[in-house]
Structure formats: C-alpha cells, structure tokens
Design goal:
Helix content: 55-70%
Number of strands: 6
Strand content: 5-15%
Largest sheet: 2 strands, antiparallel
Distance between the termini: 40 Å
Shape: elongated
Number of helices: 11
C-alpha cells in the first residue's frame, strides 16, 4: 500500500511540474500580445528556437534528475568490496539495518526512497527522488536552465500586459498574464535560492545534509573547527568532480588524506606515531 502511494506521488508531482512548464510557455507562445507570439509570426525563428530550446533543456534536466540513479548503495557492490577504507584510517562505517549493509562515508539512508544514497544531499519533494552523487549535477543544471527560462518568461510576460482604464477590463485582458506572473515570481524566488545554495555546495564539495546536520555526523563532528570541510581540496577539482566524475569517488581516501595532513601531534602518543603507517596516496576516482 505504501509502495503504491509513493509511486502515484511520483507520477502526480512530475505531472504537475510538466503542466506548469507547458502552461506558462504555451500561453506565451499562443497569446497574440506576447513578444514570443509576435516573433513566431514575424519569422524571427532564432528567438523562438532559443526560447523553446531553453524550455526543453529545463524539462530534460528535470527528468534526468528524476530518473538517473542518485547513487543507491547496492548490496552486492558493498559485499564484494569489504575493504572500504584505507588501512591507515580510523574511519568507522555505519551499518544500516534497513538495507543490511555498511554505508560508505557521506552516505545516508533515505526514509522516503527506503535506500542508502551515496554522497546524500537531500530528498527533493518536487522531484520525488533523492539528490545524490550521481544526479546532483543534473539537479544543478535543471536549476540553472529553469532559472534562465523563468527570467526570460518574466520579461515576455511583463511586456505583454495591456493597459486599460477599468480594473475589470484590465483583468479580462491580462488574466492569463497575471496567472503567469504569480507562478513565475514564486518559482523565481525558490529557484534562485536553490541555485545559489547548490552552486556553493558544488564549489566547496559539501552537501545540504553535511552543512545542516554536521553535529550529528560522526566523521564531521570529530573535526574541532566547524568551518573546515575535509572533502574540499580545491575549487577547480571540486567542480571537475561534480560534473565529470564518471565513477563513484572513494571519499574514505579523501577524508583519510585530510586527517593525515591535519593530524594534531597531541592527539596520539609517541609510540602510536612511531608505528603509524606512512600515508599512501590513493586516487579518489
């Protein structure tokens, strides 16, 4: 019963999103007072193709984010690679009793999806899926293309409003544009705030979960300076990993390198430091 409800919830949410996009872009195309409609009939096809292509990109990245595996931790993958962490690390992986596996570092169990997700960011109710390591890039591209589409649509809508002496007449002439404006303004505020946040997450190599739940995350709670992110290496490398990493990154290696570079001598005894293995540089890709 719960499974069926979740499936229908996904269908409903995604259908609502698609209808909103088509409603706004469609009526701007068919309303005879809009700049987009005028461009279509005056054969300014570059303008029309540019707008339609942006709308298509927004829809494409939305559904890519929805349908691409966000990075679910697989049981067979977990069992076939028991040595998750470097030998010179003190990381202790958490065991998920629901999924019956050890969670790789930066993973979290999502109650809605009922799966553990690698580099978990958040469960997005507007997509009805998790945003994680494998689809975070598509989510950012969805936000970027949608924000550009919203701004363009706001400009077209604003220019399309007709003047009238009476309020009743004005509403009759501009009801569709007024509806457009309300949808677009709400969407603009929501989308721009998310775009700014996730651009920050991208260049700093962090996530929503790690930023707002740091005190509850064991591997971050042990770091005294709350402003330090152990996964931040360089802005350029963070961006490259965000967009171009084809394989799952072994964050245990990245975390271990950080800990070894920033080891406080007072935290361990002389004998422990003498027997500590040398740091082994392991590729994080």
């Amino acid at each position: 019963m719960k499974r069926n409800f979740f499936v229908w919830k996904k269908i409903f949410v995604r259908l609502v999103h698609l209808v909103l996009i088509l409603f706004v872009t469609g009526n701007l195309l068919i309303q005879d007072n809009s700049e987009l409609h005028a461009a279509l009939f005056s054969q300014k096809y570059a303008y029309v193709i540019g707008y339609v292509s942006l709308a298509y990109a927004s829809i494409l990245f939305y559904f890519l984010t929805c349908f691409v595996d966000p990075g679910y931790v697989k049981r067979d993958e977990n069992s076939s690679n028991p040595q998750q962490i470097p030998s010179n690390s003190d990381i202790r992986l958490r065991y998920c009793e629901v999924c019956n596996l050890e969670q790789p570092i930066r993973s979290r169990h999502c109650i809605d999806c009922n799966r553990c997700v690698k580099k978990f960011d958040h469960h997005c109710v507007w997509l009805a899926t998790c945003v994680g390591e494998k689809n975070h890039r598509y989510f950012w591209l969805f936000l970027l293309s949608t924000e550009a589409l919203i701004v363009w649509s706001l400009i077209i809508t604003w220019k399309a409003f007709r003047q009238s002496d009476s309020m009743g007449r004005w509403l009759a002439l501009n009801l569709v544009y007024a509806m457009n404006m309300n949808v677009l303004l709400i969407s603009f505020l929501a989308c721009i705030s998310l775009l700014i946040m996730h651009t920050y997450f991208m260049i700093h190599n962090t996530t929503t979960w790690e930023l707002f739940s740091r005190r509850n995350i064991t591997y971050l709670r042990t770091i005294k300076d709350t402003k330090v992110n152990p996964f931040h290496e360089s802005y350029f490398r963070n961006i490259v990993l965000f967009f171009c990493a084809c394989r799952t990154v072994k964050w245990e290696n990245v975390y271990t390198r950080f800990k070894n570079r920033n080891l406080d001598p007072n935290e361990s005894s002389d004998s422990e430091r003498e027997t500590r293995p040398m740091e082994i540089e392991v590729s994080s890709d």
